[in-house]
Amino acid sequence: MRWIASGLYLVACALIGSAVAQYAALAEVGEDRGLSTSLVVRESLARLDLVHASVGLLAGLTSLVALGWVRRGQ
CA 34, 40, 42, 48 torsion: positive or negative? Predict the structure, then answer.
C-alpha cells in the first residue's frame, strides 16, 4: 500500500509541476487578451509539459528520499 501511495504522490507532483509551468506561460497571454483566470487554469491543466513535469517528479522524489532519511534518523 505504501508503494501505491508513493506512486500516486509522484504522479501528483509531476502533474502539478506541469500545470504550474503551463499556467505561468499562459497567464500573461490570457491577461493581455482579457481571458478569465478560470479559463487559463483549465487550459494549463489540459496541457502536459514534460520538462516541467520531470522537475515536479524530481522534487517529489527528493521529498520522499528526505522523508525516508529523517525517518531512519529517529
Answer: positive
Residue 23 has phi, psi (to 5 degrees) of -65, -40
In this model, does residue 27 exceed pLDDT 80?
yes
Give yes or no for residue 71 having a pLDDT over 80: yes
CB 40 within 8 A of CB 19: no
Q: Can you tell me the distance from the alpha carbon of 42 to that of 46, in angstroms, rounded to the nearest whole number?
A: 6
pTM of the model: 0.74
Q: For residue 40, which of 52, 53, 22 has the smallest C-alpha distance? A: 22
Contact 15, 53 (CB under 8 A): yes
